[in-house]
Design a protein that fits this description.
The complex is a heterodimer of chains A (about 190) and B (about 120). Chain A is built from five helices and six strands. Chain A has a single domain, classed as 2-Layer Sandwich (Heat Shock Protein 90). Chain A has about 190 residues and is an alpha+beta fold. The longest helix of chain A has 22 residues. The two termini of chain A are about 25 Å apart. With about 120 residues, chain B is α/β, with parallel strands linked by helices. Chain B contains four helices and five strands; from the N terminus they run E-E-H-E-H-E-H-E-H. In chain B, strand 1 and strand 2 form a beta hairpin. In chain B, helix 1 runs parallel beside helix 2. The chains are: A alpha+beta (about 190), B alpha/beta (about 120). Chains A and B meet through helix 1, helix 2 and helix 4 of A and helix 2 and helix 3 of B.
């Protein structure tokens, strides 16, 4: 379904999903400003992360949530209905996985890069473990917690560009997972 | 659009307490969560006080931050009227996201409905 939406890729052939390419793979998808399409984007993210990056299944699910939350923000705030959002996935197998989400800055609640940085700081201060609010968890507790680099950038011509990047560090992740497991007996450790 | 279904079932318990088993299946995301959430708000309103909830997440595949916000709000409403809330049979990716936002500090998760039932009664 989403093959039609791939606008640009630096690979010339479609790679079988079970073969990890040696060079970075960049895939760009343009979506209408509509949450209707997000389930397809989540499926794509999960499959790409599981099969082409070297990340564990657990991190594949986590990155699926990161992408979904960033797209929701772009749709809700950045791009007006009828406009579009642009997602770019950059995978360096066994090294890093990055998503860049761009909006057009036509939304009624648009933010600049500086405002987003401030918003993130404010929410990180407010949204603790026992936070009872209805909204406000996505950016500080999912996107920021599950990425190593989170960069907000103003686009030329208007709009926001958000870079979220995670490096593959298997040994460190195994230690974190072991600690999580000790803290919460209901936590199940997923392995690829 | 993501598909999600929410169904309710009475749980038989002794005494005046009402316990509802709420089975959530599919994917809760921006495209459907507001509509699905209304069903649970209506249930809480219709039953009134003395209500406890067990969420059966065995067939829940995805939930976003907004759906976690709703879950927190239902917990607040039910707790305020003396009830309890528990989550049962959640998949590991669901437990993972509930943990990262801190919700497992508020709502306990259980591997089975029977264990959740013991916790809320």
């Amino acid at each position: 379904m989403f093959n039609n939406l791939v606008k640009y890729s630096d690979v010339n052939v479609i790679l079988p999903m079970d073969e990890k390419p040696n060079k970075p793979v960049k895939i760009t998808i343009t979506l209408p400003t509509d949450a209707y399409f997000l389930s397809g984007i989540r499926d794509f993210t999960l499959n790409m992360t599981k099969n082409m990056t070297g990340f564990s299944e657990q991190w594949s699910y986590r990155f699926q949530s990161v992408v979904d939350e960033l797209c929701n923000n772009a749709i809700e705030h950045g791009s007006a209905p009828g406009e579009e959002i642009i997602l770019t996935f950059i995978s360096k197998a066994d090294y890093s996985f990055e998503v860049v989400v761009e909006d057009t800055g036509t939304g009624i609640n648009k933010y600049t890069a500086e405002q987003m940085q401030e918003l993130l700081k404010e929410r990180e201060a407010v949204v603790g473990d026992r936070y009872m609010g209805l909204r406000g968890r996505g950016l500080p507790k999912i996107v920021a917690e599950w990425t190593d680099e989170l960069i907000f950038e103003d686009r030329d011509g208007g709009g926001l560009k958000v870079h979220a990047k995670k490096y593959l560090r298997k040994e460190e992740d195994e230690v974190i997972l072991a600690e999580d497991k000790k803290r919460d007996p209901t936590h199940i450790n997923l392995t690829a | 659009m993501a598909e999600a279904t929410i169904t309710f079932e009475d749980v038989q318990v002794d005494g005046d307490k009402q316990v509802k088993l709420i089975k959530v299946a599919g994917q809760l995301d921006e495209s459907n969560v507001d509509d699905e959430a209304k069903k649970i708000y209506k249930l809480i309103e219709d039953v009134g006080g003395n209500l406890s909830l067990i969420f059966d997440f065995s067939e829940l595949e995805y939930m976003n931050s907004k759906s976690i916000g709703y879950l927190t709000d239902w917990y607040s409403k039910v707790s305020a009227s003396g009830g309890k809330v528990a989550i049962a049979q959640a998949k590991s990716n669901i437990v993972d996201i509930l943990q990262v936002v801190g919700l497992t500090q508020l709502i306990n998760t259980f591997p089975s409905i029977e264990e959740a039932k013991v916790a809320v009664v």
